[in-house]
Amino acid sequence: MIDRNARSFRRLGADFGGRTITGVAFDRETLAQAEVEDADAFVAVTSGDNSNIVSARTARRAFGVRTCVARIYDSRRAAIYERHGITTIATTRWSIDAVLGQILTDAARIETTIGPGEGDVVVISHDLPAHGGPWDVAHFERDGKWSLTAVSRTGQTTIPVPRQLVQAGERVHIAVHRDFLDDVEAALTTLGAETAEGT
Description:
Elements: E1 2-3, E2 21-22, H1 28-33, E3 41-44, H2 49-61, E4 67-72, H3 78-82, E5 87-90, H4 91-103, E6 109-114, E7 121-127, E8 135-136, E9 146-153, E10 156-158, E11 165-166, E12 171-177, H5 181-198
Parallel strand pairs: 1-2, 3-4, 4-5
Antiparallel strand pairs: 6-7, 7-12, 8-11, 9-10, 9-12
């Protein structure tokens, strides 16, 4: 654990078994003191994007740490960082997705994102109407836009196979490109409306 302010270490639990180093995380001497060359992974989570990316790049390029992760607030720069082999975590987008997932109870919930920065591909989950169906898995596919990746029912989750029927009340998990989030949610809402009309 590296921090420029030694008082920060007071927040560590009494059972913390690691080492604490006072210094600047992107300083080579500090990293050498921390023996970062022996680390399995390096994670930079300071409050500054530049500090995080420089620290992660130094750990990777100067000390050969293969897995380096940097937290960033400006997700627009994530792709640049990724090209340097640094995995980036855009906390702002993750926070927004988590909040929306809690308050929009009738909408598709965002489970995770894939890709740099805000995540180009999003995995959402959606509870199908309690009545209606069944629906062929192809009903939840749009080439290049979204794809059904899993189906959950009664506590079990399975990967669908071609021509499988998805039943009312099941939960579908769909991987969708972020550009088409509104489209997939509209399609799922239409599904519910069609079911209501059928009843």
